[in-house]
């Protein structure tokens, strides 16, 4: 079996991988799957001479085989990883703002962080901000089934069949959404919990069921809740909350 250190120059047995972890595999993929970095970050570790395979300096494109010993010998101070919950107001863009438009980078005073995922301009609520690129795919890829919860108000009264049809999955264009959980709050308001994130999904599901959205707010991502965080404000995700978040992402 192959081995990889948990800390500097210390090796640990390689656990049989899940999904696509099949030997031989490229060294950057191996390091990413072992939670040391993203694949791009792994390339940087390799390029700066911090990765060794069987005590031989690794180069880009090297492959790890069963029986190999992989060492990561970190140099210098490692980056301090941070995570924030941000309550995005309506009118603030998460990506690709044009001149004169507001975006998260200009609204949040935390240096070095970026938003994970998107909320459209007319939606509000919870965004995760971080400098940890490892969580992007683990949080957003649909195969991980992470829950995201939204509170929605509609312009018209909800139809009596709305909850059942929404929960069963809705046909939008050429695909049907996964089953979801819906809680009716009042005749114009509901909460929905999804495990996927298609573009404008909640709005498109509502349109398919003859309901037009008035307001849409994301109130939860996995164990991270918006609660009473003021609009436009941010708070650190730390302590037990952060530990649970990273465990759910299988990063610790």
CATH topology of the largest domain: Pseudouridine synthase
- CATH-wise, what's the superfamily of the largest domain? Pseudouridine synthase
Question: How confident overall, as mean pLDDT?
Answer: 89
Instruction: Assign the CATH class of the largest domain.
Output: Alpha Beta
For the record, the count of structural domains works out to: 2
Alpha-carbon Rg, integer: 21 Å
Spans of at least 5 consecutive residues whose pLDDT stays below 50 are: 3-19
For the sheet with most strands, the description reads:
9 strands, mixed
> How many helical elements?
7
Series of H and E elements: EEEHHEEEEEEEHEEHEHEEEEHEEEH
The coarse silhouette is elongated
Percent in helix: 10-25%
List how many beta strands DSSP finds. 20
Assigned CATH architecture of the largest domain: 2-Layer Sandwich
- Secondary-structure-based class equals alpha+beta
What is the terminal-to-terminal distance?
22 Å
Strand content: 25-35%
């Amino acid at each position: 079996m192959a081995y990889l250190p948990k800390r500097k120059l210390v090796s640990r047995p390689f656990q049989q991988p899940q999904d696509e972890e099949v030997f031989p595999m490229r060294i950057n993929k191996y390091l990413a799957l072992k939670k040391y970095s993203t694949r791009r970050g792994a390339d940087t570790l390799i390029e700066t001479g911090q990765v060794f395979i069987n005590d031989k300096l690794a180069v880009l494109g090297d492959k790890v085989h069963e029986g190999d010993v992989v060492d990561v010998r970190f140099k210098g101070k490692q980056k301090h990883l941070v995570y924030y919950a941000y309550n995005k107001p309506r009118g603030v863009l998460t990506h690709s703002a044009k001149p004169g438009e507001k975006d998260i980078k200009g609204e949040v005073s935390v240096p070095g962080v970026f938003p994970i995922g998107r909320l459209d301009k007319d939606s509000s609520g919870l965004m995760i901000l971080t400098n940890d690129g490892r969580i992007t795919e683990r949080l957003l890829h649909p195969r991980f089934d992470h829950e995201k919860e939204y509170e929605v108000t509609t312009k018209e009264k909800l139809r009596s069949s709305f909850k059942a049809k929404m929960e069963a999955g809705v046909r939008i264009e050429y695909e049907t959404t996964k089953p979801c959980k819906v809680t009716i709050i009042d005749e114009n308001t509901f909460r929905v919990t999804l495990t996927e994130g298609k573009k404008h999904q909640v709005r498109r599901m509502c349109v398919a069921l003859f309901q037009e959205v008035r307001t849409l707010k994301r109130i939860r991502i996995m164990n991270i809740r918006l609660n009473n965080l003021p609009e436009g404000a941010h708070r650190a995700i730390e302590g037990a909350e952060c530990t649970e978040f990273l465990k759910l992402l299988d990063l610790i």
